[in-house]
Amino acid sequence: MSIYPAPLEHLIKNLSRLPGIGQKSAARVALHILRRPKDLAEDLAQSLLDVKDKIRFCSVCFNFTDKDPCAICADESRSNGMLCIVEGPGDQLALEESGAFKGKYHVLHGVLSPLDGVGPEDLKIGELMGRLGREAIQEVILATNPTTEGEATVSFLNKLLSEKGIKISRIALGIPMGGDLKYMDSMTLRHALKSRTPLSP
User: Fold this and answer.
1) Which residues share a beta bridge with 141?
2) pTM of the complete model
3) How far apart are CA 51 and CA 167, in angstroms?
4) Rounded CA gap, 141 and 33, in Å?
5) Spatial separation of the C-alpha atoms in residues 143 and 87, rounded to whole Å
6) At what angle do helices 148-162 and 125-134 cross, to 10 degrees?
7) What is the domain range of residue 43?
């Protein structure tokens, strides 16, 4: 038997189904919503419905958008011949927030993972190849995460794209700023040594 009334228990149960929110956090959020004015709950409910009703994939880059094409794909100033390939929308958002990249993106929505049954046909690779035929892409930057699956995806895309005569690059991988070598895993250290850059005298 629950210590909470049924509607509150139902809200807690639903909130705890979200990633990163356990039972205690869900109870804290639910009790906060209960104590706040009703308009908070109404706004929250409407924003949840809006996300489900209005957000879709951009038909060009496959990022989430409420307009098609998305703002980045529609921005002609970003048509500089550079295309950055990322695993998911969160990766694209992180790169965009850094302000370091001013080209366009292509979101794969995953990585190759044969053990999980994820092959090239499950990703937006066919759509990527179609873009290369339509757009004046001069360089493709592979920006997958440095995992076994991410590296397998880079290897696959490198073979596929090298036939197109397009410059292919990989984001640098290695020791983060403020990192400590003795705490780094062997894969990170291998990438850091492979991605070393010469210093001018």
Assistant:
1) 84, 169
2) 0.82
3) 37
4) 44
5) 8
6) 30
7) 6-54
Is residue 110 located within the same domain as residue 32? no
Residue 64 resides in a domain: no
Model pLDDT for residues 116-158, shown as the tens digit of each residue: 999 999 999 999 999 998 999 999 999 999 889 999 999 999 9
Please write the tens of the pLDDT for every residue from 67-123. Answer: 999 999 999 999 889 999 999 999 999 999 999 999 999 999 999 999 999 999 999
The CATH number for 126's domain is: 3.40.1360.10
Cα four-point dihedral sign 21, 22, 23, 29: negative
- Same domain for 17 and 111, yes or no, is no
How does strand 64-65 pair with strand 82-86?
unpaired
- Residue 76 has a CB neighbour count (10 Å cut-off) of 7
Q: How many CB atoms lie within 10 A of CB 182?
A: 5
> Within 13 Å, how many C-alpha atoms sit on residue 22's CB side?
1
